[in-house]
Write a structure and sequence with these properties.
Length: 721
């Protein structure tokens, strides 16, 4: 084994997902919230770091493609650029035009927010605001932020409508008495200088002592007038300068982050609506500053807020973070893109266990659907990916270490250890030395073709909800990029879009179908049989829907997220007849489906499966999957194997007691029909009629808990009363 910089499959697949996410974020309209879901925190961290690398390279690529006239300014400005920025901040206002509102170039600023660091305070949304303020000061400079607040920020602008003008000028001079402010500033400086130079050269006129008293008094008054003009000419600019300097010093000394800290530590202030309103105003001020810098730098600027470790907090703190995303980052003109990186299974269980979570809108999936505009679930690892990751963990490679403080990562920094393997086990992507490249124009054409096709059968399945439409569009763009990057034979555009819509509208039923297909493949491998890949997914659902009906109480929360069941039947049975082969092609790129639903269904479906084959063949309860599909002949065969008398087998045949009848039939009627002895009935019931209650029902609330609302200081112990 040799050490080399090798793009192994574990890194390649995650790199493809990070690349697809970065390409999508480049074209997504802000504000946006991305739900980055995976049970493995290491994979989340790796995808986030690789995403930063791809976003940076994507920004550089867009800048290289720009024409000479639209070249953006360097993110590291020179002295001339700093002076130009100060001049623009003091004397000009940006003009919102179609051109500067739709720049081709983009710059991403990454801000890391660990909810666990602020878990000691109830006001997590205020902690998020502090993190953003600190990041803005680091990337743009504290002086620039203070200058913008003093010279550009006006509270009344918040209620004014943003007007997009048809103009080619990006800047308009501020006015003072109908004159440009910069001209007035020069005149105020120029006039005192001229008077000062005149006085220094010629001096002040002196009165003539030989004249009469009237003449002396006139000359004296003339001198007083000249002195008054000199004092007045210096007084106006000095007063204005002193006022400006005072405001600058005030904002530099008493910064907004300190005001927020004092408000968080004061219960009387933090419990008031005015405190949150003040923080909301600061977010609006930050948004306007970023919009100002977009015009100045001639590029879009997106603040990517990476929110991690939310699932480690208590349920109420998780809800507080979700509320912060929903409230503070919901401005239509906000430049923020928030990435909620969590384990979905832990998040769902904690949120559903929070106080006052009783209606559908308060449950985790419904809450996330109102916030998340782009759900992205990292697909499970393949066998090769697991082996490579396991090897790196065993060899203490840097690849396996988590370090949230790392800000800069390049492709050459990720060094992996090559594992000895056959060449045919390596991914075909590994042999290509070229970077991941997907044509943007092709992707946008495919996305727009779906919206323009008025005759598409998909139109009737699109919900009349803007948030749902946005999720479908963003997810469709993501799936296209992943399929192109993986060099997969993609189905037609309409078929791919239909798959995205099905995962968005019916996540529970699709997860159930995927689990049934997976179980059938595993059973075929055990029994050394083949699977019909041309079998439609509707046939799979039709065969297993009785079993789904049995466990409906255990998955009621997931079923509530599904849309109209009749529309689902029409979708799969009539309009889009997906097959198991289509599932194999599209499953790897299905990132808008929460895999924790499928994992929960697998746990429920296999709850009664035991490893001891002797116990399983004799007394172990039959899995509901096998029992519900048994015919009367299969039940008779099972009774013969268990050495039951022939009379019971005849009763089963005469009354057609198949698996469905055993599952849904009344047990009292069945007991009277069979007339078994107590021991025979106990054995029969153990084998055929035992259904295990799922542990999920233990977490369901039956009555509300008392409110637990107590504010405590940041950094102190977080105990509930």
């Amino acid at each position: 084994m040799t050490n080399s910089i090798l793009n192994m499959d574990s890194r390649t697949k995650d790199d493809v997902y990070a690349y697809a996410l970065s390409k999508t974020l480049t074209g997504v309209r802000a504000p946006a919230t991305v739900g980055l879901y995976s049970p493995c925190q290491d994979r989340i961290n790796l995808v986030l770091k690789q995403m930063e690398v791809h976003l940076k390279s994507e920004s550089q690529r867009l800048e290289q493609e720009s024409s000479a006239n639209s070249k953006p300014r360097s993110p590291r400005p020179s002295l001339c650029s700093v002076l130009s920025l100060i001049c623009k901040l003091l004397f000009f206002r940006p003009v919102w035009t179609q051109q500067n509102q739709n720049h081709h170039n983009v710059r991403f600023i990454h801000v890391h927010f660990s909810a666990w660091h602020f878990a000691g305070s109830d006001l997590l949304w205020a902690g998020m605001a502090l993190r953003l303020f600190w990041a803005m000061q680091v990337h743009f400079g504290k002086l620039q932020l203070v200058l913008h607040r003093v010279a550009q920020y006006h509270e009344e602008d918040e209620v004014k409508k943003k007007i997009i003008e048809d103009s080619t000028d990006d800047w308009r001079s501020k006015k003072c008495c109908c004159f440009p402010l910069w001209l007035c500033f020069l005149l105020i400086l120029f006039i005192p200088l001229v008077i000062l130079v005149f006085v220094l050269i010629f001096g002040l006129p002196k009165p003539n002592l030989n004249h009469t008293e009237g003449v002396n008094s006139g000359a004296s008054s003339q001198v007083n007038v000249i002195e008054g003009l000199v004092i007045a000419s210096f007084g106006v600019p000095v007063a204005s300068a002193l006022r400006f300097i005072f405001m600058m010093c005030k904002n530099l000394i008493f910064s907004q982050d300190q005001n927020i800290k004092r408000g968080m530590d004061n219960d009387k202030v933090s419990s008031k609506l005015g405190f949150m309103n003040e923080v909301r105003k600061e977010f609006w001020c930050l948004s306007r500053f970023v919009q100002f810098m977009e015009v100045f730098e001639r590029r879009r600027i997106r603040i990517v807020l990476q929110i991690t470790n939310v699932d480690k907090c208590s349920p109420m703190k998780i809800v507080a973070v979700l509320d912060a995303i929903n409230i503070l980052l919901s401005d239509e003109e906000s430049p923020f893109i928030s990435i909620l990186a969590v384990s979905p299974e832990v998040l769902v269980q904690k949120v559903n266990f929070a106080d006052y979570c009783f209606i559908k809108e308060d449950q985790a999936h419904a809450l996330l659907n109102r916030i998340v505009t782009l759900p992205f679930t990292i697909p499970p690892m393949c066998d090769f990916s697991r082996r490579s990751l396991l090897y790196n963990l065993a060899s203490n490679s840097k690849f396996s270490q988590r370090d949230d403080r790392i800000q800069k990562v390049s492709s050459s920094d990720i060094t992996l250890v090559e594992v000895s393997m056959e060449n045919n086990e390596k991914s075909p992507l590994l042999s290509t030395k070229q970077g991941l490249e997907v044509n943007d124009d092709e992707v946008e054409f495919m996305v727009k073709s779906i919206a323009k096709n008025s005759g598409s059968k998909l139109n009737k399945y699109i919900l009349d909800d803007a948030m749902s439409m946005r999720r479908v569009i963003n997810s469709f763009r993501m799936v296209i990029i992943i399929m192109r990057a993986l060099s997969k034979d993609m189905p037609s555009t309409e078929t791919t879009a239909a798959w995205v819509v099905m995962a968005n509208h019916w996540p529970c039923r699709l997860s159930w179908i995927m689990q049934c297909v997976e179980d059938s493949k595993q059973r075929a491998e055990i029994e050394c049989t083949s699977v019909n890949r041309l079998k439609t997914l509707w046939d799979v659902f039709e065969e297993s829907k009785a079993e789904l009906h049995v466990m409906k109480e255990e998955i009621e929360e997931f079923l509530q997220e599904d849309g109209d069941p009749e529309m689902f039947e029409m979708f799969l049975k009539e309009d889009f007849q997906f097959t198991m082969r289509d599932l194999e092609i599209l499953e790897e790129a299905t990132v808008n489906l929460d895999r924790s639903i499928k994992k929960e269904m697998a746990r429920i479906r296999g709850a009664s499966t035991l490893k001891d084959s002797r116990w399983k063949k004799s007394l172990a309860p039959l899995p509901i999957t096998s029992l519900i599909n048994m015919k009367a002949e299969d039940v008779c065969t099972e009774l013969e194997r268990m050495d039951f008398p022939t009379k019971y087998i005849d009763i089963v045949k005469a009354n057609d007691l198949n698996g469905t009848a055993l599952v849904f039939g009344d047990r009292k009627d069945l007991k009277e029909l069979l007339h078994m002895t107590f021991g025979e009935w106990a054995t029969f019931q153990m084998r055929f009629l035992t259904f295990k209650t799922h542990p999920r029902q233990l977490y369901r609330r039956t009555e509300p808990s008392p409110p637990r609302t107590r504010h405590y200081l940041h950094g102190h112990s977080s105990t509930y009363e």
